[in-house]
């Protein structure tokens, strides 16, 4: 991470397979205000599974998103950017209590045993989150292959921008959606995306575990297209119109996506059992927060809540930006905010650290 002697004005940049989002916050005393934000879609195949396949096009879209940001273009050169969840690994580990100068060596040794990648070819970041009786340290460790971080950083520098931090999506998402002062029990965040669904288990003060599955918006559309014998464009329109409604005209849509939804429910149940068994958790998941573009799907919250028998709420990325009690209307609607969760989390870090 780059260190600066004085405060700089940085912004968040979220790169995904389907879109690029930017957001910049400004601090006003003890408050934060949204200075500017933008989103531009990316053609399919430009970024695939987090890998940049067309540098020129990505550069073009990033520039377009900055210039077209509302209510004014983003001119800052300093960037906090996201690393796709599928390209990084996060785990809470326990190591014997050791002197601060020896922590890095102890963490790297443990990481070599736990993570399925070459640690010497990866960037490793960590934070001590708990000390237990001076015998053990609990540490959250994030590991990302250098090849991916360097590829993203190279593109950003080519535009003339200066990367100051890179962050795995799940950390930005939880910073955006969870007020740590109000949250003590475990929370499951489900990021429902176009090309994948990610699961994040958060227990104050850190992400405990992440996973993802290919059940997603594209899979829903493909199933509707096949079952109703219509093209993908028509299938997307009817999915948006019907969602999970069980009216006469929408029953076939629900039947089309039900197998995928059942797969998702089974995975959520397995995930909660895994968390309790492998993390020695004496508390069950308290609630579930959903976000991402597919969280806008009609009926998805009530369906998931009914199936997994837990409280479910749509994410509120303004919870750590607009203070409780402030009579301020967010500049982006609640539903539209669901697709800006990651970039707002990055923008919060940009304000708080730089």
What does this structure look like?
- The chain folds into 3 domains: 1-87 and 145-178 and 319-354, 2-Layer Sandwich (Nucleotidyltransferase, domain 5); 89-144, 2-Layer Sandwich (Dna Ligase, domain 1), CATH 3.30.1490; 183-315, Nucleotidyltransferase, domain 5.
- The protein contains 10 helices and 15 strands.
- The strands form 4 sheets. The protein has a 5-stranded mixed sheet, sandwiched between helices.
- A hairpin with a 3-residue loop joins β1 and β2.
- α4 (169-177) crosses α10.
- By secondary structure, it is α/β, with parallel strands linked by helices.
- Give me the number of helical elements: 10
The averaged pLDDT comes out at: 91
Oligomer: single chain
Query: What would you say the CATH architecture of the largest domain is?
Result: 2-Layer Sandwich
Instruction: Please describe the biggest sheet, giving its number of strands, its sense, and whether it closes into a barrel.
Output: 5 strands, mixed
Cα radius of gyration in angstroms: 21 Å
Q: Report the sheet-strand fraction.
A: 25-35%
Gap from first CA to last CA? 11 Å
Strand arrangement, largest sheet?
Answer: 3-2-1-6-10
* Low-confidence segments: 1-5
Which descriptors would you attach to this protein?
3 domains, 10 helices, alpha/beta, globular, 15 strands, Dna Ligase, domain 1, single chain, Nucleotidyltransferase, domain 5
């Amino acid at each position: 991470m780059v260190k600066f002697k004085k405060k700089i004005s940085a912004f968040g940049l979220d790169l995904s397979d389907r879109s690029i989002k930017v957001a910049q916050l400004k601090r006003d005393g003890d408050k934060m205000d949204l200075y500017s934000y933008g989103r531009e879609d990316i053609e399919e195949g430009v970024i695939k599974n987090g890998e940049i396949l067309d540098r020129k096009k990505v550069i073009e879209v990033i520039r377009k998103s900055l210039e077209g940001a509302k209510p004014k273009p983003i001119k800052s050169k300093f960037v906090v950017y996201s690393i796709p969840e599928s390209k990084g690994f996060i785990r809470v580990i326990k190591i014997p209590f050791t002197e601060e100068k020896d922590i890095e060596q102890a963490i790297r040794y443990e990481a070599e045993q736990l993570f399925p990648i070459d640690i010497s070819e990866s960037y490793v970041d960590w934070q001590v989150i708990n000390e237990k009786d001076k015998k053990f340290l609990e540490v959250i460790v994030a590991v990302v292959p250098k090849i991916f971080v360097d590829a993203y950083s190279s593109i950003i520098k080519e535009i003339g921008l200066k990367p100051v931090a890179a962050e795995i999506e799940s950390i930005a998402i939880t910073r955006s959606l969870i007020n740590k002062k109000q949250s003590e029990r475990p929370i499951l965040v489900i990021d429902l995306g176009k090309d994948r669904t990610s699961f994040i288990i958060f227990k104050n003060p850190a992400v405990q575990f992440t996973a993802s599955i290919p059940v997603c918006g594209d899979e829903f559309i493909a199933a509707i297209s096949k079952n109703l014998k219509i093209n993908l464009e028509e299938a997307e329109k009817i999915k948006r119109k019907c969602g999970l409604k069980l009216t006469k005209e929408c029953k076939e849509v629900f039947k089309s996506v039900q197998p995928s939804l059942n797969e998702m429910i089974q995975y959520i149940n397995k995930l909660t059992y895994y968390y309790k068994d492998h993390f020695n958790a004496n508390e069950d998941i308290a609630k579930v927060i959903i976000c991402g573009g597919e969280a806008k799907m009609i009926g998805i919250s009530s369906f998931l809540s009914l199936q997994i028998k837990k409280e479910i709420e749509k994410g509120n990325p303004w919870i750590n930006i607009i203070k409780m009690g402030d009579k301020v209307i967010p500049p982006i609607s609640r539903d539209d905010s669901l697709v800006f969760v990651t970039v707002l989390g990055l923008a919060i870090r940009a304000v708080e650290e730089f």
